[in-house]
Amino acid sequence: MRLKNSSKLWANDLYMGVALVENPRLMYVGMQAQYFSFMMFDIQSHFVRNVILGTAQMPSKEEMKQNNIEWGNK
Predict the structure, then answer these.
(1) Does the pLDDT value for residue 58 go beyond 70?
(2) How many whole angstroms separate alpha carbon 32 and alpha carbon 8?
């Protein structure tokens, strides 16, 4: 699988930079360029862990898309 994106900092198809909007059970940690590196990847891994354990909930696809629009335009 390959993620195609024009930006190295934000992927429009990944909610919170991690979860694929069309299939939120598929997580991609470490997509961003190495500007933020380990701290960013650590935060992403905690988010993924919480989703897997059920302590964090994924929003609806519409909410994920809206979040990406808001953050992608900054």
Answers:
(1) yes
(2) 6
